[in-house]
Fold this protein.
Amino acid sequence: MPKTVTKDPVARDLANGTLHDAIADIAEDAARLILPYWRSGAAVQVKSDDSPVTLADQQAEALILSRLAALYPGVQTVAEEQAAADGVPDAAEGRFWLIDPLDGTKGFIAGKESFTVNIALIQNGVGVAAVVSAPATDTTWSTGPDGARKRRFGEPWRPIKVRDRPERPAALLSYTMTDDEAERLSARHGCKAWQGMDSSIKFCLIAEGSFDVYPRTGPTSEWDTAAGQTVLEAAGGRVVVDDGTPLMYGKPGFKNGAFVAMGG
């Protein structure tokens, strides 16, 4: 009998695993576009919410949206700069992309290394494929057909997974916290050691077994967390809200409350 050919390219490429590679390549191309703007004194504009934006954010998002539309036409996209220009959609259902073309813009402007390109595919509130790419270190973390993985640009993938919780677990925290706040928050989660860091790299460092917990009390947007959470969950970790249920996506206003990301 002839094989059944799906008319849904997203479902097809999720099933055969090629979607993960496709979005990783897109994120790395966006990372290469961003990198010449880093530490270059690029002009900074201020958006209506008082957050900064640069040409690197805008051009990277344009590349990502164009490439995703060519590969998977008709899938809704919710992207940071698009939302800033046109308004945030009320909510989303079913299948959609969440995109942050340059997560950690403030750190990027300051010349720090911890900024990322984030792309996540959401289905029914849950991430099913994602990539986080760090231009400054030529490093990408991604979901794959068999779990989470990591590579340097141009090198083969290698699998990653969370570590079992050690006797002295280490926390990652937002760099905006004061030392006293950070110490109190890390201690609340059983961690005496902690490190402040920008961007979604925090999720990825837990996914690869370098850290154990990332608690977040302040608000974030869904495009800040979706890709990192999806990679972490593929590596065996989890991200939960106050009642212990997973952090979900497509919420009204695309805003997150408090959550905790954790490994083993």
The first helix runs from residue 9 to 16. The two ends are 46 Å apart (CA to CA).
